[in-house]
Amino acid sequence: MQQQSLHFTSAVRQPNCPVIEQADLSPRKRRKKRYSRPEQTDKCLAFRPHPLG
Question: Which residue windows does the record flag with biased composition (Polar residues) (predicted)?
């Protein structure tokens, strides 16, 4: 349950995650970005400890 919440909050507000940032800034380029996938997002969140704890 906690992971789902972080998926939206941390995933969107994660300056340490260039992958998510790029995908967020360029929604139309998401197709070209092969790494802009939910798997990568999970990995990014897993590596970068969320500030909420």
Answer: 1-13
| Residue 19 phi, psi dihedral angles, 5° rounding | -60, -50
Write down the pLDDT at residue 39.
54
Counting Cβ atoms within 10 Å, is residue 20 exposed (0-12), middle (13-18) or buried (19+)?
buried
> Domain residue spans in the chain?
2-47
Q: Going from the first residue of the chain to its last (53 residues), give the mean pLDDT of each consecutive group of 10, the final group possibly shorter.
A: 52 53 53 54 54 53
Q: 20 with 12: CB under 8 angstroms? A: yes
